[in-house]
Amino acid sequence: MQMRFALVAVAVTALMAATSTHAEERARVRVSSLKCRATPEPAGQVVAKLRRGERVRVVGHSAAWARIRTNGHPPCWTAQRYLTPDADAYRGR
User: Which domains, from first to last, does the chain contain?
Assistant: First the structure.
């Protein structure tokens, strides 16, 4: 019983470490078409498609994936390399 509890505790700790919960970031899509997925994996179901320049809010990370929110779409996951920081968002534009 103690061993099972220890394994569950390690798994929960690893999951929490993999998905950070730091402050929200603002970014823009840097590729012509971006698939946004339900889970942070290449085989995840595509739940939205975004276009170059579209603004998003990054609300979490897991390895090389970013969890994003955007107007009109449910929260979803995309590879971080397809996003670029949105400097204009921080200047009030």
Answer: 2-90 (2.30.30.40)
- Whether the full predicted model's pTM is greater than 0.85, yes or no, is no
Q: Are 89 and 26 in contact (CB under 8 A)?
A: yes
Structure tokens at 24: 């929200």
Dist CA 70 CA 86 (whole Å): 13
- As beta bridge partners, residue 19 has 62
Q: Are 61 and 19 in contact (CB under 8 A)?
A: yes
Give dist(CA 91, CA 32) in Å, integer: 25
**8-53 confidence digits (pLDDT tens):** 443 434 444 444 445 689 999 999 999 999 999 999 999 999 999 9
